[in-house]
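Entry 14. Ran structure prediction on the chain below.
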Amino acid sequence: MTRSFASDVYMKSSESMPASGGSASQRPKLPAEADNPILSRAFDVLHEASASSARKEENEIAQVRTSEPRLTEEHRPPSASVGLNTTNSPREERLLEEIREMRTWLEQLAKNQKGSRDLPEPLGAFQNRLLSKEFSPQLVETWVDKVYDKWLDSKESMSDDDLLQEIQRCVSGSLEGRIDGGIDENTRIVYIAGPTGVGKTTTIAKLAADQIFRARKKVGFITADTYRISAIEQLRTYASILNVPIEVVQSPGDVQRAVQRLEQCDLILMDTAGRNYLNEIHVAELHSLINANENSETYLVLSLTSKTQDMERIAEHFSRYGLKKVIFTKLDETESIGPMFNLLQDYPVAMSYITNGQNVPDDLLVADSKFMIDLVMGAGRA
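Output, structure tokens:
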């Protein structure tokens, strides 16, 4: 079997490089290389190969520049690199591609080597518990790496309390721009969207009660969830208890007329149809009913009992239409809070509310940074 071209380069570079020193010794070292000389040697070879390629290109440019005739500025052609061949040969392209693949593989190997490092006890416990709560490995690694680097910078002198405080700062930083304070004072219409079974209608009742009793607003309901008769009756029941008017609509024209009939209301909450929003066509149909403007807000309701992949796929479909606010429900029905943080990390959305029970008007929490940090720290402590 013939060896690959990258293998040949590896062998030649290994023969020509000194055991220590040289350009490879000047590159930044990864933490995982400290106890792994084989991994370190492989990175040195790749570094030298990249440096050799760069030197070759610099020499070609220098040769072209010295061979160019001296031209005045007005006679100089638009390109300063006349005669320079910037196209790599197939052999060079194959080499560069193999170098890129090797670097990617080695970087992944270096990351895997981190699993064998000795974390301070509080940080190790924090990492294990977060993984058990279904936080993504990438997010956990990001947080743990930052705190671990701080611990190393302190020459491993940080106390347990110092480590926990550093974890809190790290989590707080990741939540910047991801917390929304709930319904804005100047909002007139709130559209509530979400798949079936997430507790959307009950959430609307909780929002209405909060706005009536806390903000002293006159609230009205619109429902477009005509796919389920029980959904209309459920919202009618809440409307009767809260003494608010309700309109049933089936088309964009109906929505406009319903808004006009509820003109006396300070805030209108619209319950949209619960559909399978894993299907992007259903998402597009929903947005035909929504008239987004500066006086409206749209919230996506997701259940924390759903699978992470489903939540992320739904969020991806909705984010294409500019939706940025999320309400998470059923916190009381799961111990896996990781998917909530994974979604906030991976998609440009902000969290506004969390529900943690069926009671109306109770069991509705306005999301804030302190509450979210407490959730994480609670997951990270014994």
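The CA atoms of residues 20 and 44 lie 10 Å apart. Will compare against last week's run tomorrow.
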